[in-house]
């Protein structure tokens, strides 16, 4: 198997995570090019991966003017830039690993699909949860027929209060008009993808969705609270507020560095530097969450009808005490139920009368989780390695998310948003 030469388009956190395979297993991957408009970020990534200066570009337009000098691109740009920056590299002949969501509207979806098809490109979407041992183990049990035919599939995602504030109230995905994605697409396309994956290619036919921004409306701001947590918010209010910037990002330790302290990149993240940053009016992460002019839903429910009569349900709630994803699949011969964060699930089967047998699968005990699994339950590094193997001609794994696979979940999200806004039931296919 040859070493796959990679160009990073968008040198942010997600592209960096996928590219780290080049440092861990250099015989599999080598980063040979960078496309990044931020000079500081480009320099940091150039040094980290040892990329020659002549292979560093500020725009995709500059990059594609060069003769093809790599095998594939890892695209880690922001959501609305995914298709505009991917089409030129596909036309240049590169294969592609593309961060999710791969598009922000249906027009972009079909544009990318047609471009990839025209050029015979291999395109893989970064639905990393498919690679987490928790979900891949469940998928194997479903594929083996252990619970029979699926009757019902339910998924929930509880977005913790600190993740909700860092990413969707104060952060890059707070406004659909800026990032291009509603929270159902930016955060929960993972969950809709998992639903489609567990259903094994059965088409979703219709969808209905309900949701609103209930908790974080400006009128719900605590009476007497200031505009900045660390400047003018009274201690009696700030000290009890779960969304305090001080508690969320500074004390007792510096947290959410890649979001909150982007403005300090390249500097030492000392307590004083971070404190001063949060007290700077230009840093939105110091601002009261009720004043951040976000337009995301803080809770949403999606109901999906499949062509074989199965109904899937997905519930997202923002502001939970701890992050948690649950899954419950009921089949004709049994059921699977588990909590992702615990890396544990059970398979139950009816035994007649009121009894049932239950088998518990703890992935830490089985050795599938080793305590060093990183983000997304160990999915990130497994995805990168699978992409490299895929380009080398290996049989795609059960987790491999082709562009065609991802179309079902993205279309479902687009139609679900239409349903939520219009109060209608929408056709998917």
What can you tell me about this protein's structure?
- By secondary structure, the protein is of the alpha/beta class.
- It has three domains: 4-125, Rossmann fold (3-Layer(aba) Sandwich), CATH 3.40.50; 129-216 and 295-377 and 399-427, 2-Layer Sandwich (Dihydrodipicolinate Reductase, domain 2), CATH 3.30.360; 221-291, no CATH class.
- It is built from 17 helices and 15 strands.
- The strands form two sheets. Strands 14-13-12-11-7-10-9-8-15 form a nine-stranded mixed sheet. A six-stranded parallel sheet has the order 3-2-1-4-5-6, with helices on both faces.
- Helix 5 packs parallel to helix 6 and helix 11 (189-198) crosses helix 17.
- It is globular.
- The two termini are 40 Å apart.
Primary descriptors:
34% helix, alpha/beta, Rossmann fold, 3 domains, globular, six-stranded parallel sheet, 429 residues
